[in-house]
Amino acid sequence: MHSIKLPKVRASPVNKLFHLLLVTILACIAFNSYAAKNYEKKYESAVAAYNNKEYYNARRQFKYIAKKGHARGQYWLGMLYTTGKGVRRNPRKAFRWFQSAARQDNDKAQASLALMYQQGQVIKRDYALAHQWYLKSAEQGYVEAQHQLGLMYYHGLGRAKDYTIARNWFRAAAEQGNVHAQYILGLMYQEGLGTRPNFEESVKWYVLSGGQGNVRSQFRLGELYFHGRAKHRDYTKAFKWYRMAAEKGHKEAQSYLSVMYNSGVGVAKSQTKAEYWKQKSEK
User: How many domains does the chain have?
Assistant: First the structure.
């Protein structure tokens, strides 16, 4: 039998070019994947160095990956230039690195950039840009940005005052455990700002904030229970919260403790303790 020889198929220039392009793309993907893993290792190493207070070492590693476009590295480098840890303080450089990271949607960098615009650090104060960057960050769920955005609407910074919008952002931050947002939310429900007064909601948020040690919430709870309407009045609870605030140095709470010990309201009567808290409040 005679063997049949098949004709050789020559690759066309187009096929060769496609093959070369495919190989190049795959090589780039592999390299970028390797580089990304390498940058992530350096980032973790830099964070560990920072936590160990090895600020110079942390700065060196953050700077390396920041220059490669690593957003979190850029944010951290901005923070180092802000605080002066491992490097001389330089707000201008901090601004530039925050800006680079913010443009890559880093939520913390966006909030830091917003704060610089709000306070007029390095650049001219611009509430509109502050609002813009806080909003970008807040919409990603960053709790500090949500709180700050609430404050902008609460105080009317760069925007007309809007207690309803402010309350919505405070609630978003409060539900994530932000102690300051919880306090302001309690205050808004107490005073009926952007909503009807609501004793239960006010107490709820003050308790969450006061339980985390916020002295203003602790004092407000004392006030609500001491001066509240008959169905809400509870001198024992008032004493509890006044005492917590008083022990943190709140002068008015100390004065109330003196009165309560002196009259035996909400606590066993004690002239000695009444005098003690009276003297504390007058110092």
Answer: 1
**How far is Cα 61 from Cα 165, in angstroms, rounded to an integer?**
41
**What distance in Å separates the CA atoms of residue 144 and residue 166, rounded to the nearest whole number?**
14
Structural domain contains residue 200: no
- Considering Cα of 50, then 54, then 56, then 58, what sign does the dihedral take? negative
Cα 92 to Cα 41, 89, 95, 248, distances in angstroms:
28, 9, 5, 38
Token pair for 153: 């609407």
CATH number reported for the structural domain that contains residue 259 in this entry:
1.25.40.10
Residue 50 lies in a domain: no
Please check whether residue 122 lies inside any domain of the structure: no
Which residues, 6+ apart, have CB-to-CB distance to 41 below 8 Å?
none
Task: Tell me the C-alpha distance between 207 and 221, whole Å.
Answer: 8
Burial class (CB in 10 A: 0-12, 13-18, 19+), 278: middle
Range of the domain at 233: 216-283
pLDDT at 142 over 90: yes
* H or E element, residue 26: helix 13-51
User: Is residue 222, in this structure, part of any structural domain at all?
Assistant: yes
If one counts every other C-beta atom within 10 angstroms of the C-beta of residue 10, the result is: 8
| Tokens describing residue 189 | 């429900």
Higher pLDDT, 8 or 67: 67
Confidence check: pLDDT of 283 > 60: yes
